[in-house]
Design brief:
5-stranded mixed beta sheet, 3 helices, 7 strands, transmembrane, transmembrane helix, transport, two-stranded parallel ribbon, Nucleotidyltransferase, domain 5, elongated, single chain, membrane, ExbD
Length: about 140
Amino acid sequence: MRSFPQRKQRQARIEIIPMIDVMMFLLVFFVLISTNVLPALGLNVALPGSAQPDPIKDEPLRITLTVDKDGAVYVDGQATPMADVAGRLKTLAGVKQAKVIIAGDGSSNLQTLVEVLDQLKSAGMPAASIVTKRQT
């Protein structure tokens, strides 16, 4: 009688290397997507240039006022009529001291900036910073 050699039973195991490959692909995918998608969420504003810009410091409460080239004002990314800017700033800041940053388009009207500063005064915001990009 002939007997066949018995096959060794292989124990099941988890293959780590393909799992690492998949994790690396996912990591690269999310990094590439986040770097390409996040700038698209911002408003399209051509910042004015400055020879010596200071870096923005991390503040506990920061409100961004954006003024586009057409004079439209956005408070933290939401379009807001000029007359409602002070009220919106008061609502966002509450009782806390907020740091206001103005990100204005370089070709926007100076009168719009003056009106924004008037709204800041009405809201009781003592100071604001203007965001610029470094001139080359």
